[in-house]
Design goal:
By secondary structure, this protein is an alpha/beta fold. Helices cover about 45% and strands about 15% of the residues. It has a five-stranded parallel β-sheet with strand order 2-3-1-4-5, sandwiched between helices. The two termini are about 15 Å apart.
Length: about 180
């Protein structure tokens, strides 16, 4: 029997996580938990506290667990840049009979920074708007590179295509989830 997959991401803001997540969703029909969209729905703009963020992630962890228990694949579209957080999600997946697919978007920091600062209006994947320098640096400076034992799939967020993502992640295009 096929194990459900939990797709998680490491990379700078603007590295291409959401673009990659949307390709995975289209190819597999996995549940897409887009944290920035969840934040916007709950808190409006960018006005949320660290306590709000902590509570949001607790609730999303429960949601992830529920989907995995049902045998559904889940895409957790956010920066999981700290090893301890990746380990927490790996343990959650294992407890629920799932496997983790760690995607490391290796996009150059300055390219990612430029993307994170852009605001393209309504058709933008930056649903919280352009990021400021302080926020970018706070997130970027917490990035702990994956270790070999995590088996990351490295993707350069400046050079990939839909077909490349499907091939690199060995995605089943038969839409394996609900």
């Amino acid at each position: 029997m096929r194990k459900p997959k939990l797709y998680i991401f490491v990379g700078y803001p603007g590295a291409g996580k959401t673009t990659t997540a949307l390709i995975i969703k289209e190819a597999t029909n996995a549940r897409h938990i887009w944290v920035d969209l969840e934040r916007k729905a709950r808190f409006g703009g960018q006005d949320f506290t660290p306590a709000d963020t902590k509570e949001l992630y607790r609730e999303l962890d429960v949601e992830i667990e529920t989907y995995l228990q049902r045998g559904e694949d889940v895409i957790f579209d956010t920066n999981i840049n700290m090893f301890k957080d990746r380990q927490f999600l790996k343990d959650l997946a294992i407890r629920n009979g799932a496997e983790v697919v760690l995607i490391w978007l290796t996009t150059d920091k300055e390219i990612a920074r430029k993307r994170a600062y852009m605001d393209f209006g309504e058709d933008n994947l930056r649903v919280l708007g352009a990021m400021d320098d302080s926020t970018f640096n706070k997130i970027a400076n917490r990035l702990e590179y994956p270790v070999a034992e995590e088996n990351p799939v490295k993707i350069d967020g400046t050079k990939f295509s839909k077909n490349e993502i499907i091939k690199l992640l060995d995605l089943n295009t038969s839409k394996s989830s609900l």
